[in-house]
Design brief:
2 copies of one chain form a homodimer. Chain A is mainly alpha-helical. Chain A has helices at about 5-20, 30-35, 40-55, 80-85, 110-125, 130-135; strands at about 55-60, 65-70. The first copy, chain A, has a single domain (about 5-140), classed as Arc Repressor Mutant, subunit A. The first copy, chain A, binds a DNA duplex through α3.
DNA sequence: GTAATATTAGACCAATTAGTCTGAAATGTC
DNA sequence: GACATTTCAGACTAATTGGTCTAATATTAC
């Protein structure tokens, strides 16, 4: 199975984007997220805890508690989330799996894959959560 | 861990390319491939058997036996190999993991990812094994 | 202070992917 | 025909990822 991002990472992207749509500082519970996004409760809990530990989210316990972005939506990019969850190895390793592939010992698709990969990299770096929030049309993100 | 192709698929790409460098019809044993490419013997055996069953390779038993391309190198593309090993779901599914993402219900990066994905798709379709063979500089493919 | 509600921590289980091993079947050489 | 060499088939193990569960801790509201 070819894959770009792990399922964990997909869930993280969905959840952070959901948070980005709420007024800054609004605490959102796992319960609400899991309900709106259809992500398994405990699995999502682990992912959010991890993001909180890495400083991307802030969390608070108790009723009225939940998660919220730790930084302005404009300052959180796709890159930050992917980096935190999946890591960035895929931007530096050979697409054909050669361990020694590099500029002076390139594989047969090195340069062509290189520019595609740069396109992906650039998208990750430039798209922040505020950008994404503007483009949302999906019903699962609408109303509370 | 983000990934484009599974390890199986990477190994398949490496092995098929190796075969493409030999004169058409030359039988290459798993032993030679595993030695030159550093891929675990029995694992590679399974992958090659699978490719043979799917009609991409031809195989023969006994001494002087081995594997060879079932079609001219110009007619085997990256696309064929990826399709046979990993499948092509990643070209049709949402990069953020939304099950209902589509043209009339797009996710926030739908169109931008769409063009990157098309670039990948196009590379897979247009690069055939003969093209790749021409660009080889890697030492593991040199000499016998 | 008590109860309700939320995250936190970590052990645990299930499914998929990666990799190993063994024995059988086919083919070429002597 | 005997033997060496190869693929073939399938069971098996190991590692990673995906997902579940339980008990503890913090916070709010009464």
């Amino acid at each position: 199975m070819s894959v770009i991002f792990s399922r964990q990472c997909e869930y993280a992207l969905q959840a952070v984007l959901y948070l980005a749509l709420k007024p800054a500082g609004t605490m959102i519970s796992i319960k609400e997220l899991t309900k709106k996004l259809g992500i398994p409760y405990h699995f999502l809990a682990k992912i959010l805890q991890d993001l909180a530990n890495q400083g991307l989210l802030r969390s608070m316990k108790g009723p009225t508690g939940g998660f919220t972005l730790a930084h302005p939506a404009t300052e959180i990019t796709l890159f930050h989330i992917v980096e935190a969850v999946d890591g960035l190895d895929f931007l530096n390793t050979c697409v054909m799996g050669f361990p020694d592939c590099s500029g002076n010992n390139p594989c047969a698709v090195h340069s062509q894959w290189g520019s595609l990969r740069d396109g992906i990299h650039s998208m990750l770096v430039h798209k922040n959560m505020a950008d994404l929030a503007k483009e949302i049309t999906k019903p699962e993100y609408k109303s509370s």
